[in-house]
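ok trying again, last paste got cut off:
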Amino acid sequence: MLYPIRDLFFRRMERLEGKIPDYYSYDLDNKVRFKIINHILDNTGDEELSDLIGTLRMELGREISDNLYNNEIIEGFLYSCDENEFLSAIEILISLKYDDSPLYRILVEGSRSVVKSTGKTIERPPNPQFVKKEEEFKEFINIINEIFRIDKIGYEIVPVSLPKLPYIVVPFNSQYLYVETIREPLLLLNDTNFRGPLNEFERALDDYRYEKYDDAIHKANKSYESTLKTILKKKNHDFNPAKEKISTLVQKVQDETDIIDSSFRDLVSPFFSVLKKGPNIIRNMEGIGHGQGVDIKEMEKSYADFVLRLTGTYIVFLIERYNEVEYSDDKQ
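nice, full thing came through this time. structure:
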């Protein structure tokens, strides 16, 4: 998916105005870590630090420090861990600070309701104490982003509104990829009908984050293929799970299910030809590493970006079409 023209314009203006530096590094050296660590320690209570330590232990599957005090444990870990672990720790801490409960949102934003018996409108203004707490939470994120900008570090914390991960740290050049494309299939993760394919897509993102681009592409393709198979299975259509390729599965979804209404079949037929080829063609390319011959097998980031965009878009389209068709009677 390409950037919209408007988005390109504003990004160009931001670059000219110096908001996005022409050159930025992804090296989280001790100078940058010192600023972020001190900001974390100054604005995080003992209970939150304990929760962070416990979550990191579970995520990493190991002890993170031998020190006795929470501040020393976190400080030691954040100075010594690798960059991906450092960024993950920031994401986890933000998720611990974030409160999306309905009651909290009402206290922050206020509410308006109508009494059915009288028709009277009751308005509850925002609670100043909770408004201040929300402002402090956003400022906590803003300061880390400001540290990234000042030190010309190419990361930014952006909201994605996922149930367990409300904010993520992304590279500047991948912000659109995450926020506009990858977020959508992740938001569908609670769809029990497609939990398998969507978990495969989530694992593809984990590989992408750790720069395992070849593995990310492989898992993204598997996720797309599993989505097609799930639709056919839910629709009680026969297929050979071991032998049938994506092109065949797409054809079966097109011809043998009601995913696409017959009156729109001709209109979307060219689109289905794209779905048939799918992103798997990237996976089978030879020598895409640096254009130095067929012996180069290293997968570059741009190819992984491209495949994740495609699979994310395809998966969302197919799942949303399935749900629209399957539950149309319920809506009526």
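cool. The chain has two domains: 23-97+132-153, 160-332. Residues 160-332 form one domain.
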